[in-house]
Amino acid sequence: MDFFSIMNILGPLFIAVVFIIVIGGFIFIIGSSIKQRNKNDNSPKLSVPAQIVAKRTNTWGGSGNSSASTSYYVTFQVESGDRMELQLNGQEYGMLAEDDLGILTFQGTRFLTFERKH
Fold first, then answer.
1. Residue 53, exposed/middle/buried by CB under 10 A (0-12, 13-18, 19+)?
2. Is the pLDDT of residue 6 over 90?
3. 96 — pLDDT class (breaks 50, 70, 90)
């Protein structure tokens, strides 16, 4: 067998394997998202006293012709000392400040509201 005969066999096989891996990755991500959403939907809505202990953002993209996207996260500490980081939208994120005290309402890993104590 010469080099070109081997490439005629391995080339399509390689492309098929890469295609299967990429499609498998998409299926895994979609499945994980659906599983997390169902878990959140079946979790109780809890309202607990909490303090905001940290805020952070994660920005990606923005190179070349693509636009940048930003995710917003806030870490809350509840009375037991446990901490949880929840993702918020930009408007909710902007209304909160570190050290704020209030009532956090969440469902699973889903942020619902934070009512600041005055």
1. middle
2. no
3. very high
> Which residues partner with 86 through β-bridges?
74
The answer to whether 48 and 117 have CB atoms below 8 angstroms apart is: no
Span 13-34, pLDDT tens digits: 999 999 999 999 999 999 999 9
**Cβ–Cβ contacts within 10 Å for residue 60, how many?**
10
Which residues face 106 on adjacent strands?
Answer: 46, 111
Q: Specify the CATH architecture of the domain 45-116.
A: Beta Barrel (2.40)
Contact by Cβ (8 Å): 10, 79: no
Nearest residue to 37 (alpha-carbon basis) of 112, 109, 99, 114: 109
Q: Place 87 in a pLDDT band, splitting at 50, 70 and 90.
A: very high
Evaluate whether 69 touches 31 at the Cβ level (below 8 Å).
no
Q: Residue 56 has which token pair?
A: 């952070």
Give the start-to-end residue ranges of the domains of the chain.
Answer: 1-42, 45-116
Using pLDDT thresholds of 50, 70 and 90, give the confidence band for residue 64: confident
